[in-house]
Design brief:
By secondary structure, the chain is an alpha/beta fold. It has 3 domains: 135 residues, Glutaredoxin; 85 residues, Glutaredoxin (3-Layer(aba) Sandwich), CATH 3.40.30.10; 112 residues, Glutaredoxin, CATH 3.40.30. It has a 5-stranded mixed β-sheet, with helices on both faces. Strand 4 and strand 5 form a beta hairpin. Helix 7 packs across helix 9. The longest helix is centred in the first third of the chain and has 20 residues. It starts with a helix and ends with a helix.
Length: 359
Amino acid sequence: MSRSFLRALFCVVLLKFALTTSYYKDSKVLEVKEDDFDNKVKSFKVTLVKFYNESCKKCVEFSEVYKNLANIFHDLVQVLAVNDESLSKKYKVKSFPSVKLFLGNGKESEPDVVDLDEDKDLDDLVSFTLKTLKKHVKQRASKFLSKVFIIIRLVKFYAPWCGHCKNLEPEWMSLPKKSKGVKVGRVDCTVHQSLCSQFNVKGYPTILLFNKGEKSPKTAMNYEGQRTSADILAFAKKNDKALSPPTHATSVSDLKEKCSGPLCLLFFFNPSTKEENLKTLKSFSSKHSAPFALAYSMVGENEQWQRVFGLKEFPAVVGLNLAKGVYLPLNSDFSKSILSGKVTGNKLSEDLKDTNDEL
């Protein structure tokens, strides 16, 4: 046997080993063998399974889509990958990769199996999987939506028959390539009518921007500009510093967690006006974008802070930059302007420009 043949054989074996061991390393996908497969799919109510073959080029390309699918669904369903000829025959897999949804009926019964179309992109797979899940795990649908909207920032609500939606598609698909920081998704309103109604979608396409971790229709920002990737991306970046709701800080560790940016506004509320002040501050944070964080403490809750900041009149607000270890008490007029509910995020950012420089 020649050395060149042995070298080629070794390379093939090495490549095969690399493919089978690196597909889903450090991901939410669990690779299983035949002897453990039945136990896995029967023990869970819902399991996503990808059948693949290591020699399949399309399987390699699809692995990234499947890993992203697993990231979205892993805390709702079990996500498996199978490279086994006998299992592929048992479940009538005709081509690779093939994705199926297994719906468990208990350990004594065979699971129901639903075929998914591996030719779909990630958004369509998410949509189709959710549609199937709704029949079997309705009580967990709201948790799924929360998960999706935490991951996805820009969402396109559309209808398959809509001409404007079809024209937008190439621009929409190019967004992730132009900016990795902007996560996009889509909702088919002919499938998810109640969801589209919840977000007050009246025409197609409707594009909404969500704050990080934010899911409320009241705080979703409606995009009304030109339907080009450049304009949509500019809108997303401009509003990327949307305010998060104010958080209650009772300790130094709270401040370090909630006020880690270059500027944080720490409010001190009187107990008697707490509810009113907090309501105004939450309303402000839900409507405006500004490059700082909001936190609050109650008067008397941490008297050491009040002494260090030299606060005597309340409500009061202090600008903090914990990275530099500096602070600046802001005047009472500034505090009143925010708590009046009349100031805008842009105006506040302008007013704070000098403060930010000082900090």
